[in-house]
Amino acid sequence: MVKNATKLGNYLKAGRESKGLTLRAVEESTGISNAYLSQLEGARIKQPSPVDLHKLCELYGLEYTLAMEYTGYPIPEGMATSTPQQRLLARLGHTTEEQEDELVDYMEYLRSRKRKKS
Q1: What is the Cα–Cα distance from 38 to 62, expressed in whole angstroms?
Q2: Nearest to 61 by CA among 90, 87, 95, 99
Q3: Region 32-61 average pLDDT
Q4: Angle subtended by helix axes 84-92 and 64-71, to nearest 10
Q5: Which of 14, 16, 50, 82 has its CA 20 to 30 A from that of 27?
């Protein structure tokens, strides 16, 4: 079922780390075993529970619809799908102004390299 387990795993891991949580702390908060969480972050879970995804997204402050998109589950009617920009922002998590400036500089560098190759 998972369309992109690696993206989902990275998304969840980044969300957990942005909150400064260990797998054991998440287990205590959600009741989801740390072994399952580790496998989920490592893209070894093929069909994660929507209930578990919802608990994790709530705890981490992540977009549940994006987690659902990554798993390949249908998005419930009335829940908007993410735009590419929203997906990027969600994947980046919290950034400082300095980090945002560095990201912009790096994107400009990447784009300039592409133009030079053309």
Answers
A1: 18
A2: 90
A3: 94
A4: 100
A5: 82
